Amino acid sequence: MPDVVHALCEVMVVAALTVWLLFTLIGQFRIDKIQRMRRLDLLHLIPQYNFFAPTPGTKDFHLLYRDQLDNETFTDWAEVVDIGPRRWWHAIWNPKRRIKKATFDLTTTLAKELQQYGPILVKISIPYLLTLSFVSQLSHYKSAIATQFLLMVSDGSVSLKEPVMLFLSDLHNL
Predict the structure, then answer these.
(1) Mean pLDDT for each 10-residue chunk of the chain (174 residues)?
(2) Taken in order 88, 89, 92, 96, is the CA torsion positive or negative?
(3) Whole-Å CA distances, 149 to 7, 109, 121, 170
């Protein structure tokens, strides 16, 4: 009798795992009906893998900043993350990629908030305040009294077009 129970348990576990695998495979398809059924997965047991972006990024965001000096002049714009060209060793060791990724995530979120809320309300959003905090902690001139940041978008590094301004922040005291 214990062998029958053991075999039955094995069959049930294999069946459950097979059903789970089947639902996981089906759940990877971007079909509306399947995606609506995900609401029934209250415990989030069916994973959704995104190995490739459904719509690949076609734009590059650029975060620049400048300072207002105590003599009321402005410094030149400086790009926040300019990590330079890729090197062969970056496949193994590239500590600056986290800075670039964090800046990318922050600027894309700020761009979405800007589109959703407009240029006035975005100034009280979390992405705006995080960007301001980040820019304020960067290296500044000793005579700087305020800083300002600029969000620009371009068609990528191979584009011949100039980047386009998306958003210019107010001046903020340092």
Answers:
(1) 85 92 81 77 76 68 91 91 72 78 84 88 90 91 93 78 88 91
(2) negative
(3) 66, 15, 16, 8
Element (H, E) at 6: helix 2-26
DSSP annotation string for 143-161:
TEEEEEEEEEEES-TT--S
Nearest partner of 137 among 91, 86, 172, 93, judged by Cα: 172
What is the residue whose two structure tokens read 């995104």? 50
DSSP designation for 98: H
DSSP tag of 60: E
Q: What is the DSSP letter of 91?
A: G
